[in-house]
Specification:
Elements (H helix, E strand, L loop, with lengths): L2 H10 L5 E4 L6 H10 L3 E5 L14 H12 L9 E5 L2 E6 L8 E2 L2 E6 L2 E4 L2 H10 L20 H11 L8 H7 L3 E2 L2 E2 L1 H7 L12 E7 L5 E8 L3 H15 L2 E6 L2 E6 L3 H14 L9 E5 L3 E7 L20 H9 L9 H11 L6 E4 L2 E7 L10 E2 L7 H22 L5 H8 L3 H13 L3 E4 L6 E4 L1
Parallel strand pairs: 1-2, 10-14, 12-18
Antiparallel strand pairs: 2-4, 3-4, 5-6, 6-7, 8-9, 10-11, 12-13, 14-15, 15-17, 16-17, 19-20
Helix pairs in contact: 8-9, 8-13, 9-10, 9-11, 12-13, 13-14
Amino acid sequence: MKLEELKLHVAEGEGLTVEFKEKFTSRIDRDIVALANARGGFIFLGVNDEGQMVGEKLTNRMKADILSLARNCEPHIAISKVSQVDKTVVIEIPEGDEKPHSCSSGYFRRLDAVTQKMTQKEVGLLFKNVSAISYEERICGDISWNDVSKEKIETFLKEAGIAIDKIDPKDVLTSLNLATKKGIKNAGVLFFARELRRYIAQCETILVSFKGTQRVDIIDRKDVQDDLWTQYQEAMIFLKRHLSVRTEIKGLDRKDSYEIPLEALREAVANALIHRDYSVRGTSIMVEVHENHVIIKNPGGFPSGMSQDRLGALSVRRNELIADIFARMHRSERVGSGFKRIRESMEAAGLPFPKISSDEFFFIEFERPAKGKDTELGVSEGVSEGVNEGVSEGVNEGVNLMIKYIKQNPGKRAPYIAGAVNVPLKTLERWLKKVKSEGKIRYKGSAKTGGYYAV
């Protein structure tokens, strides 16, 4: 491994295939078997949990101990390479050919950036599924490196908080285990292809708002056929637009409370994108807003070995690579705690836990509170200290926040901006019209593809 490649891995942080260790100890046999039981990867000795390269020196004794620990695993693991790269010791572990592997402390697996001891049920599942090559792992034979969007990679790096000097798509995707010498994996295509539907036609999320409780009268619909990150963003913007929000303004402080907690909805949308079965053609993820409920469903049902009574107790990933990318962008919880967060946010809002069911699809249904004064769109009873003054100050604060967002994110369209600053689309459009007339912003481009820019 070259120093530039090492620095890229360290900048990206720990994940499904990368583990940091400040110094060598015999306990790294747990990380060796965990990586071998997943997709293989690297252990960096001399890098602490904060990603600081503190240094570790490779000696003949240390190398012999590392190789011995791997040989003592059952079945034994043939370490690909142990080397000194600058001040860091790099241990390269291949994906295991005879999974599951164990060490003296038991069976371990990699779950995002964490090495976790496996239960007996999880060990049994791994024995059962070792022969299957998941859809996300398959090489997409149709795509070339020219079809990879550098802009989408830049967006990922920004969301993940990764700072690198030079962006080389091949280096970035390879370091994330989304590409090999043979080509780009389907997981890489799902996030970074310029025109995703050319390669994976079934990858789309359909967003629909219905009048009433039946799937008959459509109020609004949007078919999102771009990368998974865009599908996530568009789904959240759509939900914010069609759910009621209570706004409390006290002086310059503003607090928006949606009728269904956004944290719960974010977890549910991310879960649908992470766990859908992308090999099933002719299907889509559906996000439906009805008068009395919101339902999110994805093709695939429960992954093998998972059932409704095991939610929150057992973590089974259909798409480990996709889960790793979402976790790096801080849009899903590591170590399978997503349903716990949904439960906690719903309980805090005084709402019931959503209904969950599964057959060929996975369904999660959120109950909408009955419409009343606590869920009506607009300003709530929180404006008690001088209504007119409080509202005026709150609006000015919101407008200033909008202008700041446009300056930092030029070219965004109104729905994106509304979602980013947490205001209804109609409110934002009034603000845009006002600020545009004052000459502080302008709209550039066509009606379909243009966006707003600060002057």
